[in-house]
Amino acid sequence: MSLDAVNSAIFASEECDQFARSVDGFLATHAAPEAIDRWRDNKRVDRATWAAAGKAGLLGISVDEDFGGAGGDFRFEAIITKAVGHRGADALTISLHNAVILPYFASFGTEAQKRHWLPKFCSGECLTAIAMTEPAAGSDLQGMRMTARACEGGYRLSGQKTFISNGQIADVILVAAKTDPAGGSRAISLFIVDVRGDPQGFRRGRNLEKVGQEGQDTSELFFDDLFVADDALLGGVAGRGLQQLMEKLPQERLVIAWQAMAMIERALDETIRYTRERPMFGRTLADFQNTQFKLAEYKTQAVVCRVFVDHCTDLLVRGALTPELASMAKYWASEELSKIVDGCLQLFGGYGYMLEYPIARIFRDSRIHRIYGGASEVMKLLIARNL
Questions:
Q1: pLDDT of 182 above 90
Q2: Distance between CA 108 and CA 123 in Å, rounded?
């Protein structure tokens, strides 16, 4: 049930069409159902798939060509996110790598940092993660306890991070830590931590067991007096981390809104197909008025949500997306996702509770969207500040 015609203006170009076809072709080959099952069994995506994505030009799509990217804008990130979600290949966290983490390097990195790291990220030579969340500090970033103590030639990082996506496979982790123990808005800095070879003072914890999203590795990370050189400080100036995070979190939240939107569309596709095929009392389930009314409600909710997410995407591309609107998009899309998927599962009856049916996996995988990137309650607080 493609909703691309709802507000096609922002994607209406031959360039977007060609790119969408290339992404679909890549996923048909590298994210087939058996591959997705393998990722779930292994609790991570294999490096060969990431390498293939880099070779196909899907990594760093928004990075400037001078640094190994394709020089695209956020529309192309949305196209990737939609295609991944439509196939149920959410474990392949290209949107995290591309549209959440790389923008920190592209926007705030020194020239040397950009030239050293971005080509490696675009090729797939190095995979990334971002470490903000701690056991006692999630949405409240200023409550983090991890420290970066200045020393001769660099810093010593100490602390713990948790719920880190790509934590098991990342080569380079962007780590948020306090460089000013006195606190305040200039207490936090971001560090580029190369963890290839598991350097002394760094340890990956367990790959966490989750309700859903089993194919995406999510980890604890431990830092015990880990030394990083001066040039690991993102941008070269301490105390700018909170400002950097606040500037890029709106785009991260729009990424999550697109992930939710793609899952809504997939859930509706699966449900419409099932109700048309499911026999009941001499008719199909789709012939009953209750089914028709429910699907009409869900499609309307989906269209309204898609129009808003498209609008926010247009604003982001034009540099006009506000943190308030990004919070609205993330909050609304993730909440609508939960409502629609729950209703769709109900239409499957007992089969909806069986993991062999995609709707059951969508139901489990979708729940996190109301939590990560800022819980719905935090989004409401951010929106309320502008009332």
A1: no
A2: 20
The count of domains in the chain is 3
Closest to 345 (Cα-Cα) out of 289, 283, 263: 263
Is residue 220, in this structure, part of any structural domain at all?
Answer: yes
Looking at the structure, tell me whether residues 221 and 265 fall in a common domain. no
**pLDDT, tens digit, for every residue of 106-127?**
999 999 999 999 999 999 999 9
Q: Which of 134, 214, 252, 270 is catalytic?
A: 252
CATH number at residue 83: 1.10.540.10
- Check if 152 is active-site: no
Q: What is the CATH number of the domain that holds 228?
A: 2.40.110.10
Kindly provide the b/e burial profile for residues 222-251, where b requires at least 16 CB atoms within 10 angstroms of the residue's own CB: bbeebbbeeebbbbeebbbbbebbeebbbb
Q: Which of 126, 154, 169 is the last residue of a domain?
A: 126
Rounded to whole angstroms, the Cα distance separating 111 from 303 reads 42
Confidence band of 142 (pLDDT split at 50, 70, 90): confident
